Every structure is written in C-alpha cells, then in structure tokens.
Amino acid sequence: MIQIGKKNGCRKWQAAAAFLLITAGTGVFAATIKIGAIFAVTGPASYLGAPEEKTAKLFVENLNKAGGINGNKIELIVKDSAGSSEKALSFAKQLIDEHEVVAIIGPTTSGESLAIKDYCNKSKVPLISCAAAETIVEPVLPFVFKTPQKDSYVVKWAYQTMKDNGITKLAVVSSNTGFGAGGKTQLEKYANDFGITVVLSESYDAAATDLSSLLTKVKGSGAQAVINWSIEPAQSIIAKNMKQMNLTIPLYQSHGFGNIKYVEAAGDAADGIIFPCGKLLVADLLPDSDSQKALLQKYSTDYKTKYKEDASTFGGHAYDAILLLTTAISQAKSSDPVKIAAALEKIANLPGTAGIFTMSKTDHNGLGMDSIVMLTVKNGKFALYGTK
Amino acid sequence: MTSDIVIQYIISGLIYGSIYAVIALGFNIVYNATGIINFAQGEFVMLGGMITHSFSKIMSLPLALLAAVLITAVIGGFIELVLIRNIGRLAKKKLKKSPEMQMTIMTIGISILLRETALTIWGEQVQTVPFFTGNETSSITVAGASFSPQLIWIITTAFLIFLFLSFFYKFTLKGQAMRACACSKTGALICGIPASTMVTFSFILAAGIGALAGSVTAPLTQTHYAIGTALSIKGFTVAVFGGLGSSGAAAAAGFLLGIIESFSIVVFPEAFKDIVSILLLLIVLFLRPSGLFGTPLKKRKKDSNK
Q1: Nearest residue of chain A to residue B148 (CA atoms)
Q2: Model pLDDT for residues A173-218, shown as the tens digit of each residue
Q3: Contact A213 B227 (CB under 8 A)
Q4: What is the pLDDT of residues A217-231, one digit of tens each?
Q5: What is the model's pTM?
Q6: Residue B9 is nearest to which of A176, A213, A243, comparing CB atoms?
Q7: Is residue A379 assigned to a domain?
Q8: Domain CATH for A161
Q9: Does A210 contact B11 at a Cβ distance shorter than 8 Å?
Q10: Based on the domain organization, do A141 and A156 belong to the same domain?
Q11: Could you tell me the residue ranges of all domains in chain B?
C-alpha cells in the first residue's frame, strides 16, 4: 500500500510538471513575447556568433529583470546555425512557423542573412541581421534590417585617411574568404573617387602563415601603402613580415583588426597600423559629449563582468539588433510583426554600439559615416588616429 | 626584377622550404621504421609551438623549448604504445594482412584527437612564441634583401636535424635497425631486432623533431590549434615529391618546393601557391613514381643488403 501511495505521489508531480510545461509552451501566459535568434555560435564564425549569443542573452536577462517591455516578459529562442546558410534557413522556417516568433535577430554572417531574408520578408516577420554585406538591405525590403556599418563606409574612411596622407599608389591584399573578397571589390570600386590607383591587388589563402613572398611583390610594385582586408591571424603576420623585410610603407587594415588579440600576436610590429572601426574599442577615449559613450561603457563593463572576457564589436551588433527590436516593440505597443516593422522604420536618433540609428523607408541600416572612427595602435593599445 | 627582389624571393622560399623540409623529415622517420604515413606529424609541430608558448611564460625560452620537445616526444611514444600498436595487432589478426593501411588511417584519427585536445587547452586564439634573438621588428639586411634573424635559427635547426638523422641512419646500430624494420619486419625479428620497440622509438623521435620544428618556426608563423592539417599535407607532399624514406631527398625537396612556391607568386596569385606544389607533385609522380630523388623500394632493399 505504502508503495502504491508513493507511486501516486510521483505521478502527481509528473502531471503537475507536464501541465506547467504545456501551459508555458502554448503561451497561456500571453504576456510573453517570443523573439527568435539565429547565430553561428559554433563553427568557423564562432568568434562572431558566440559573443552575439552571449550579448543577446545578457540583454534579455537584464530587460526581464527590469520588468520587460510594458510589463511583458521576453523569451529569446536561440538557434545555432554553425555558420551554414542551409541550417539558417531551416531554423528561420522553424522559428516563424513553429515557434511563431514576432521577429528574428541575426544571422551572424552575410551569406546566412542573404539566404533567409526573402523568407522572412515573405512571412512578414521582421529580420534584423548582424552581418555586414550591403546587399542585405539593398534593395530595401519592408521587413529586413541590419545593424553593422556598411562596408562602403569603412572603405571610404580608410581612403579619406590615405588621401589626407598624400597616398596615391596602393597595394591591396586580402584573404580568399567572403569577407576578403567583399572588401577587395569595395576597395577597387571606390579607389578612383579618392584619386588612388590600385597598383597591385592580390589575395592569399586564409590559413597563410607567412606572407613574405607576397610582400616582396608589393615591394617591387612601387606602392606607397598597403591595405590588408581579412579577419584571420594573417593580420598580425603581415605586420611582422613587413618589419622584418624592412618594408617601411604604412600598413592599413580593415575593421577585422578590431580585436586586441591580433595586436598582442603582432607585438611591437603592430605599432602604427591604421584601421577604420566602430567606437566600442575606444569607448573610454571618446569625448564625454559623444552620445554613444555612456552606452558603450556600460555594455563593455556588463559584458566583462558577466563573461570574464572583453566585449567585441560583433557582440555589439547583436546588442544593437535586440535594442532596435525592443525599442520598436515598446513604441508600437504591440507584438504584431507588421506593426513592429513599421515602428522599426520610424526609429530615430537611437544610440547603439555601432552608431546613432535613424531608420527610414529607404535606409534600413540607419547609420551614417560618423559611426566609424579611424584607429591606430600605440604601445600595444588601440588609440584614436588623428582627429578627423 | 632587380637583384634585391630576386634575393628577397629566395629568402621567402628558404623560410617555407626549411619548414617543409623538417616536417618531411619527420614523416620519413616513421615511414622508415614502419612503412606507414603518420598524418599526425603536423599536430606534433603544432604541439611543439603551443607547449613552448605556455612554458615560455614560466621559464626561460631554451628550457621551454626543451620541455616542449620532451613532452611531445612522450606523447608520440604514448600514442604508438596505446593506439597504433593495438590497432596494428587487431588488423593483422582479423584481416590476416599487413596492417599499414589501418595504421595510417588511425594516424588521421589521432591528428583529430590531438587537434581537439589543443582546442580545449589553448582555445581558438592564435598563440605566439618570443623571438630567439631580437623581437618582431628585428631585421637583418643582406645584399638589399631583409629578413628576420629567426630565419637563421630555422635554417640552422633544419640543417642540424638533417645531419643528425643522416648520421643516425647510416652509422648507429639503432638507426640501421630501424631501417631494417621497414624493409622486412619478419626479417628484422629473425635477426633479433625488437621491431615493435623500434616502431615506438620512431614515433618518439618523429614527435620530438616535429616539436622542435614547431618551437623554432612559431615566432615567425604564429601557432594555432588547427595548423597541423595543412602542415601534414604539405609535409607529405614534400616527402613524396623528394622520394619517401630518404632524409637527403626530403630536405632537398623541401627547399626546392619552397623556392618554387615563392617565385610562383610572380605569375600566379598567392592563394594558388598550394595548387602549384600539388601540380608539381602530380607531374613528378607521373614521370618518376618513386619521387624526384628517390630510389624504388626494391633497390633500397638491395642496397641495405650490401
């Protein structure tokens, strides 16, 4: 008898747990707003996707602690695409059709974002991508947005700085990845506008461990500066190789250099490298009048306290995505995807980590040229370059 | 092309060449003793760099280098004793044929195991080792071409390893015994050579030499948990290109391929470098299946009988 009684007790608990799960799952508590997220948490783009996931989770945790949006709690459903476009698309379908999310943030990479944007748009669910490619928001689709600065801004800033320094002959080197190839195209496209001639344009293998023969070609080309476009360790190798070969022309890099680990790997050779980047890395150096400063400092500190690692610009893109979305939801006073998209388009002067967002019907990125600053390396640390 | 540019290309070629040569030498050590291709050789190089990186923070660089070589050598021996040997025994028993193929495939598995372990220990970040002389920005200029002093360390190390191995195989009993094992394991056993001990020893030696190469090159090339695969493939290419089994052939082929790759950039994009070397390998294999400087196995067996 006693045994049976015990069993019954057990059943009751199971039934209670099952009931709780079911009610939570079907959203009986209507005050929960579901947001989908697709990030490359693992795989080759994990150094972008992992901080994005951590940032999004931290943001939602803090928001729910503070009472959610207009009293409604947020539920974040994260899917790990491992950087694969096919997986990203099937997760997008799952999030929209099964989970019935009100919007999706991510994916991490440009390839994934391009793969799912049409599906989200067709399903009338807002997508806020964390990837760089301009083609994500050009041409503009009503439901597709993105947070990172446009490639072309980054290129134009680098070129403006070169022009100011009197450089007219440039050697372009890039890794043979999507990021490298994209940068190379933009660099070749805008060179003429700044009176710069590309005398040499070469791509190298992403896993290259020595670039001295490539640099020998640069040496013979008569270039006055080199710009390297990659996100790989080659960024530190090229700096070291140049010093060792006594190639004294200035080295410019892409915003991919915005990771202090690459400066550490290059050691003394990193000093003097010039590159365009968002403001997050130099938050403490910004003037107090900068409207992003407080937000950047708070994000950096919160992230470091929680995860014991430095915040990166990539995590910042996810921060901006979820900031834009929650702002839109609160302004729309509704969790209807169509109304959220309309509210997203009306966002103006909202400071984020990448810049000040002002969306419009024709601009679904919302950032201006002032979202980029030119940085350099001084004594192994990032510093603002000049004052432009 | 001016003369200083030509010299600069040759110097770049020497950097690649010496790295390739040392890895190919490691391949040959294991091949000479067992007849198997050890695809974990690149991981030994990676481990050498990584362990030197970690130890250089708590002890002087020469000591860290020594520790890296010893630890990797022990790992090499351990892998042979626990994994390679048993898989070989099992394959022989179940399949009733020589187990070289199974053992070679096992080394691919081991390379994945070592790589993932390194990822867990050191993370996906790039690691560096301090320069032996000077620092990142030091440079030596000869005849208008400049290079890092580390290059002298790398080439000297490659040359010393080559000299040591040539001497070891030709003049020491242990070296000759190892070569005998590759020719005929049964024959060697009949002569009283403990064949399985020789195999273990070859793994210890190959791992140690790989680690030494990894430590010496890491200041220049940096190190990363995943560099092993590419190095293994390149080292294998060089070993086959020169002719498997001969130290001299491996060293010569390494430097030759390094210099060819370096000059290939004059015509082809840098990203095509590997294609150039694989293409050359294919041509060599078509024309001389035993490698550029190699002698067919039959002749080698005959020579060692003399």
Answers
A1: A244
A2: 998 877 788 888 889 999 999 999 999 998 888 778 888 888 988 9
A3: no
A4: 898 888 999 999 987
A5: 0.76
A6: A213
A7: no
A8: 3.40.50.2300
A9: no
A10: no
A11: 3-305
